[in-house]
Structure formats: structure tokens, C-alpha cells
User: What shape does this take?
Amino acid sequence: MAALDAARLWLSAARGRDAVERRQAVLLQSILIALLAILVVETSVSLVLPGFSNPRSAILALVLLGGLFAVPLALLRIGHFPLAAAATVTVFEFIVVVLVLAAGPGYPGTGVAFAIPMTIAALVLRRPGLVITTVVSIGAIAASWLGGHEDVAPSTLVNLGVTLGVLGLVLDRFGVSLRDALAGELRHHRELEATREELVERAAELTATNDRLTREMTERAAAEEARRAIEAKVLEVQKLESLGVLAGGIAHDFNNLLVAIMGNASLALLDLPEDSPARSSILDVEIASRRAGELARQMLAYSGRSRFRIEPVELSDLVRELLTLLQVSIGKGVILKLELPGEPIVIDADAAQLRQVVMNLVINAADAIGDRSGTVTIRIARIEATEEFLADGHGGAGLEPGPFAALEVADTGIGMDPATKARIFDPFFTTKFTGRGLGLAAVLGIVRGHGGSLRVDSEIGRGSTFRILLPLSAFSPVPGGGEDAQWRSEATILVVDDDPMVRSVARRLLESFGLTVHVASDGPEAIRRVAGAPDEIDAVLLDMTMPEMSGPEVLARLAEIRSDLPVVLMSGYHEDELSSDVRPGISGFVQKPFTPADLASRMRVALDDDGRRRADARGRAVATVSEAGGDGARGT
Assistant: This one.
């Protein structure tokens, strides 16, 4: 097989000036090699089979004819096709002429012998070469007859001449047709090659386009998935925001009610003797009011509108302080396990709110274990949070990857399915009995309020893990100061609130401190009272949210009437809700529901600051009069 392929390659290596000549060169080369092969086979057979032919004559013919055929074959291999074609036709014509001259024109096969070089000439030479070969053939016949073969009839010569002439014409048309066919085939081949190259280019373009489309589809699918993830996050944020607005509004109105309940309970306790049988009931009302206030603060925490008393808190110490309370709050079959670090981990947080978070998570974990035996583990660690880790958490929008304090509560309980896990932070959603369900919502609100993130991992039968990430602190605790709970004053206070119960309670509480109290149900009434007697009012206790005129609007009008009038704002929201242009104009802030001590502390500070300002003003006035008098004395 390899030898056949090598022979095919050797044959196709014949050269020519153009594609047609290369085809003709391959054809001529094949004819020469075929004739040489016939001579070799004939010589070999004559040597092997005695009597087939004369071996001496066969060897002589092989040497002579092989030498003659080798000349055009060599010319073909070096690329001289025209010379090789002419030499081939000449060799064949020479052989035929010699045979005809020796045998005579009447010898059988003479016409066929002359047809061989003429056919080769038609194949490899153009028309002039074919004409020359035909003329030489006819001339050779005539010369043979004239050279001593007079026994040949003239009609035979005429027939041979006419036959060779007609054959020349036929072969001329055959050669032209063959060359035209070769040229057409080559054009078709070139067209096919061009088409193939174009198809290859188009295939490459289609492959590149397909690759590009595949990449685009992959990128589009990734973008679509990212868009759905963002939409899910946006929907979650919108849901939390809408629920937060609802919770904040309810908490604000609830706090107004608690002002009346807690305030009246405190006033009742002031009026009741120590041995009154109603005193314990009133104390229970006051305690219930405080718990209701904690519930309202949880709702505000969920809404993100609660603000905390932020101070550095060491997490391990906070958990150790809760240990006894936690152990009595969980079932007997539940083991509480602590994994606390050897180094202190300090965060900036409201310790009371964090205690609530830990209590809620541990109690939920114990409930997930139920009556079975199990373990609740509290872990505290310092971790490096990645962007992917933060992306899987709730809250924590805008948190950058880096070091965080991690507070983790893990249980070996029943775990949660994806549907339950998706709803655990919805307010009042619970798998327990009716009346529960605000705990985790408040936990999330507290975590968000502290600028942290909460991540939940849970599977059915494999328990749950709540992991809270909080920013680390760079500060130390700062001790706070005390307040004078027995403060009394004879100043005159104007209470401004649209809620009659709040006005009544605030008035009675302030009067219990010895203060003279006037009330106004809205902003316009307060402005008229102060404008009518600006020097009679020593301070104003002003509600921030009122229907006709808001607290900040009333504050601005009061400042126009009397710029040094102390104003204490009160609201069901935290002080941080105040805008920056309101803060400089107030002397204090008290959050509803407030205790008598809270109210006394704020009013004392406001009135004391006002007294100092008035004293400073009187001092400046006296100094001005003294300087004026001194100048006059020196001038007289």
C-alpha cells in the first residue's frame, strides 16, 4: 500500500507551465512508463519462456527503445513539457517510419502504426505538432513506396493517405475537445476549491459565531439568575421595609397609649399609701406596662427605627452573665454548651438588646429539640467574612468583607424545610402555638440596627445554625453618670400634645415635681399661648408628631417668638429620627413611654441650662453697664 501511494505521488509530480500542461504531463508520463513496463515484461518473458521470442532481440529492443523513451521522461521530470512532448512524438514517429520503410506501406497494420504517434501528438501537442506528425506519416508512406515497394497498389497508398488525413482531423478535434475538457475540469476544480475555502471560512465564522452566542447565552443566563437573585433581595427588602413601616407606626401609637397607662400607674403609686391593698395591683400594671414598652421597642427594632444605647460589649462576658437564666429557660433534656474564645471579642452594641437576641435564639433552639435529648451550642469567634458569605445573609446591606465578631447558636433539633426557612423572619409567623412569632423578626431588626448580618443554615433532621456577624469595636466602655430622682422645681411648663391622655399624664407627672403646667392640644394653640405671654413660660414639652403642625414646625415658630425658650421634644420614635436642623433648637428629648424619672431628668437639664444661659446674659449685661459707667467717669 505504501509503495502504491509512493508511485502515485511520483507520477503526479510531473511539471508543466499551467494546470492543463501538468495534466498532459502526467498522461504522457504514464504512457511512457506503461511502454517501458511492457518492454520489461516482454523481455522478462522471453528470457523465462524459450520460444516466446528471440531473447537477444527483446533485450536489444529494451535497450534501444528504453533509451529513446528515457529522454522525454527525463525532460518531463525537470519540467520541460513541450520538449518532452515533441521528443515523445518524434520517437514514436521515428520508430513507425523505420518500420514502414523496412516493411513497406502495404504491410498489415501500417495505418494503425502511424495512428499511434498521431494520437500521442493529438494528446500532448497542439494543432501544429499534429499537422507535422500527420504530414510526416503520409510522407513516410510515399517514401516507402518510392523506395522499392512498387508492388503496392496506388489505391492502397491513396487509402492510407486519406485515412491518415481524416484521422488527423478527427484527432485534432479530439485533442481540442480533450484540452477544453481538461481546462473546464480545472476551472471547475478551482471553483470547487474556492467554494471549499469559502465554506471553510463560513464554517469558521459560524463556529466563532456559535461560540460567541454560547458565551452570550451563558452570560445572559448568569445575568438572568443574578437579576432574579437581586429581585428576590429587593422583594425581601421591600417586604421588610413595608412591614417595618407598619410595625413602626403601630409601635408609635402603642407608645402613646403606654404613656397614659404607665404614667397613671406611677401617679397612682405616688398617691397610694404603702399599706393600700390596691398598691400591688397598680405595681402589676406598671410592670406590665414596662413589658409592653419592651414589646414596642422590639417592633421598632424590627422596623429599624429603634436606636440603642451603644457601648463596647465583650460578647463572652455577656453570654456568661446570661448562663443561669438560659439554663432555667430550656428543657431538662437540653444540654447548653459554650464555645468561647480565649481572647476578648468586643463590639459596639446595646447590651440589653443583645441579651434579648441570645435569649430568643437559645429558647427557639431548645424548642426545636423539644422533649428529646439534644444540645444547644453557643459559639463566639472572630472570623474573616468573604463577599459570598455576606451575600447569603439577611440584612447587612453594604457590609464590606473583612473581620467580624461571630455569635452563633446551633442546635441538634428537627431542622427546617426551605419553605419554613424562607418565612422565619416574617412577623407573627410561627410553627408554635398562637401568640408567638415576633422573636426572630425582632432579632433580625436588632441585628440590622447594629449594622450586622444574620445567616441561617438548616436542614430537616440536621438541626439549625443561626450565625450573627457584628462589626468589631475599637473602643472601651465609658462609665455613665447618675440622675437626681428627687428633683423639684417651681418653673412653668407648657405641654403640647394632640393626645389628651398623654397631655393629662404629662401634666400630672410634671405637677408632682412642683412645676406649674399649662397644656395645648396642637401647635397653633401653643404658639398663641407663648406669643401672648412669652416670659411666663419657662420651658415647653413638645410632641414631635401632630396632625396640623408637626413638632419641628412649632419649634421654628417658637424660636421666632423667643429664641432662648427651652424646648424638650417627646416622641414614640428614637432621638436619632430627628433631622439635623432640629437638633440645635431643642434642649432635650424624651422617648415614649417614659417613666417619671426619665421625664424629671430631661426637664431638669433643660431648665438648668436655661438658668445658666440667663445668668450668663445678666452677667454680660452688668459688665456692659459697668464698662459704660467707667468710660463716662473717665470722660467727665
Remarks:
- Confidence is low (pLDDT under 50) at residues 433-438, 476-484, 621-636.
- Residues 492-619 form a domain with the Rossmann fold fold (CATH 3.40.50.2300).
- The two ends are 142 Å apart (CA to CA).
- Residues 154-271 form the longest helix (118 residues).
